[in-house]
TrEMBL record:
Cofactor(s) this protein cannot do without: pyridoxal 5'-phosphate
Recorded superkingdom: Eukaryota
Topology with respect to the bilayer: Single-pass membrane protein
Protein name as it appears in the record: serine C-palmitoyltransferase
Pathway assignment: Lipid metabolism; sphingolipid metabolism; Sphingolipid metabolism
InterPro entries in UniProt: Aminotrans_II_pyridoxalP_BS, Aminotransferase_I/II_large, AON_synthase_class-II, PyrdxlP-dep_Trfase, PyrdxlP-dep_Trfase_major, PyrdxlP-dep_Trfase_small
Residue ranges of domain Aminotransferase class I/classII large in the record: 167-526
Organism: Engystomops pustulosus
Gene Ontology terms: cellular component: endoplasmic reticulum membrane; serine palmitoyltransferase complex
EC number annotated for this UniProt entry: 2.3.1.50
Main location, first listed in the record: endoplasmic reticulum
GO MF entries: pyridoxal phosphate binding; serine C-palmitoyltransferase activity
Organism classification: Eukaryota, Metazoa, Chordata, Craniata, Vertebrata
Amino acid sequence: MPRYSTGEAPGGHSYLQKAAMNGSCKIENGGLKNGYVKNGVCPEDRILNGGLYKRPFHEAFEETPMLVAVLTYMGYGILTLFGYLRDFLRAWKIEKCHNATEREDQRDFVPLYQDFENFYTRNLYMRIRDNWNRPVCSVPGERVDIMERFTDDYNWTFKFTGRVIKGVINMGSYNYLGFAQNSGFCAEASAVVLQQYGGGVCSTRQEMGNLDKHEELEHLVAEFLGVDAAMTYGMGFATNSMNIPALAGKGCLILSDELNHASLVLGARLSGATIRIFKHNNMQSLEKLLRDAIVHGQPRTHRPWRKILILVEGIYSMEGSIVRLPEVIALKKKYKAYLYLDEAHSIGALGPNGRGVVDYFGLDPRDVDIMMGTFTKSFGGAGGYIGGSKVLIDYLRKHSHSTAYATSMSPPVAEQIITSMKCIMGADGTSLGRERVEQLAENTRYFRRRLTEMGFIIYGNSDSPVVPLMLYMPAKIGAFGREMLKRHIGVVVVGFPATPIIESRARFCVSAAHTKEMLDEALSKISEVGDLLQLKYSRHHFVPLLDRPFDETTYEETED
Ligand SMILES: Cc1ncc(COP(=O)(O)O)c(C=O)c1O
């Protein structure tokens, strides 16, 4: 079932801001959904608000076909029935139970684990567990080597065969710009730094762990983002979860997108602020919360909120959607709220200069109060950053738990980030970085277009290198992962609880390091498996116009 449909059908019109900001409008040829015009554009909006978006915004979330939804629910229903049956058999010791059981002297305790998730893990996830945590024994580059393993107890335990599946095309790592390498200038520079500084720092930034490398990195990050100052941390997850509590607290209001990453959710919860959730990328829902917050203030006392903080991501890693940043900024200015933008997936991967979603929309970075991002994806490193005004960064240096209590970033990792960032900026005197950014954009559009043309349901924005392909049915999650690996394509499949229960999917990550041949090979294998498992659910059919070179208008859409 569709949870939202904030985009348009591929090949349709681009959205305009006023429809979202001001509610309903008359629609030429579509319906109004989640405050957005589906397959239609308000003519007056085209005139009034076209200026807010400087580029077309194509985003698609095709509805789940009714039959597929019914079959998916039936699939889960059957699995659940069998789960209860098997739990019954296990309780009566008719079937062997591999699960951890409570100690005899704790029998009268309430169960330690949440019941449904435990049931789900035991009876559903266990059947397809072989698709996850596969041990990789190489660089997570465009190809990876995977250690072969087998199970003789239905996925409860695995044993290695001693063989390695070599040269698997990697469609799963977040290596957007191809900087995850063990050779080349980044790896060489990091090796030199490793010899000079060693691998660990053994102290926090506030004590003995403040290296010149960290300061160099922070100046570079601030320059890259176009902000006054930046602070870096050893872990991306902790950057969110430890800094949000330093920025908000009791009496503050956090407005968070419903699909925000767990690190943002944890940070918001730890802060003690009141949290309200808006529908994914839905500006009407966000505006309603902002308006209510201003009108009603805090519950009971009705005193004004001490602070309102909006939390959004640049690219949403499960949906492949891009935040409607121009509209979010317009709203935050209108209601005088603060904006925290997590660019974990978008930094490096979006925008003509690879500087993220702000660059992509051609906006001023100073309009975002807190620019957060990670180095784990496009930079092939580890850790996170916060960028913003000097006052903000000085404040965080004193108040963030990750500055005071966490060991600072490993020096060779800092060097990996410095060299890759300089390359993207062109500060290394080459155009290599820019070429990678352009290559990623080209690969992304090509890969997404080809999958859509084949008839798969593909979620997200046409410029997002995160490409979710909808599988829906539980049996197809495991089958897709296994069939793809048999064909030497490494993919990530995702199901509940990372997605809603019936919206299981495969999530591809396109990289600049993928050659056209690799993408074509992956595409032909995906198509083959798609036919085998009957995954081509889309009702939009794209006819490639092959007599023209590939560009935005190369496809025409027909609908059954
Ligand atoms: C949006 C978002 N924020 C934060 C993180 C955490 O970053 P890291 O993996 O670098 O710890 C992730 C991880 O994937 C993410 O997707």
